[in-house]
Amino acid sequence: ESETLLKKNLINSNKDDEDKPVLHVQFDSDNKSDSSIAKEPCPSPSSISSSSSSSSSSSESLEISEARPPDGGWGWVVVLASFVVNLIADGITFSFGVIFVEFLKYFGENRGTTAWIGGLFMAMPLLSGPIASFLTDRYGCRKVTIFGAILASVGFIISSRANSMTVLCITFGIVAGFGLSLCYVASVVIVAYYFDKKRSFATGLAVCGSGIGTFIFAPLIQLLLDEY
Length: 228
Prior knowledge:
The protein is 82% helix and 0% strand. By secondary structure, the chain is mainly alpha-helical.
């Protein structure tokens, strides 16, 4: 009986071992590399966005640094326009002595009173320089030049119909003087936007209009006064 009990116990133990699940453990040679990869932290969305923003900002900075003045091309048209502005503005300003004599004859005022017209006309471009530069930075050279040309033209047209010294001081001295101030500041600034290496040469050509305008306008004004 004891033998039969032992046999039954052995059979039952074998059945229990067969019923238990068998666990298999496999060791790979790439275990270290996998663990090292697993230890690396995944990038967070904030780091991804910061890296993308930094890359975009760096690309933008490269684009900005690559944008350079053309040093020619359309820039020479801008120089020509600036030349004409300086020719007209300074040509009229430095030829005022010819008009001054006619004002003395026409109004019959003394020299001191009549000189107020030319004094205001020459002072306005200098006094309104900060205002003209602010408007140029705010609205751009082209818009300021167009507005200044229209304002100066209106001042000159009204001055041609003026019958008193007070009206001339306002229209010719202040209105036209301020209009030419806007044109003058913008014409000097805009040349630097189109030239880098040749900036000095281009600015010199534009400013040459002042001397040529003075040379041309004095006899031209005298000719117009004699005819009309």
